[in-house]
Write a structure and sequence with these properties.
Length: 81
């Protein structure tokens, strides 16, 4: 793990909400958190990403955004498995 990866992971895991970021930026943050958490073997990051995904699901998402969010969430669950 590089220092840069750890710093990015720390900043993403500390998010309390993504709903104020806008959908595209929120999706990017969730996807990055899932990828880093999987790469770094950090199950708490995967759990956090699932929680953030649930809050984002309550927003009005386009069909494409909803598909991406479900894809990311599936990756997080797969990583926990």
């Amino acid at each position: 793990m590089t220092t840069e990866q750890q710093h990015l992971y720390d900043s993403l895991i500390s998010l309390t909400s993504v709903t104020n970021l806008g959908v595209e930026k929120a999706l990017s943050h969730i996807g990055t958190l899932i990828d880093l958490s999987s790469d770094l073997n950090k199950p708490e990051g995967l759990c956090k990403a699932i929680d953030l995904s649930r809050s984002l699901e309550r927003q009005a998402l386009s069909p494409a955004q909803s598909t991406i969010l479900h894809y990311f969430t599936g990756n997080a669950w797969s990583g926990l498995r």
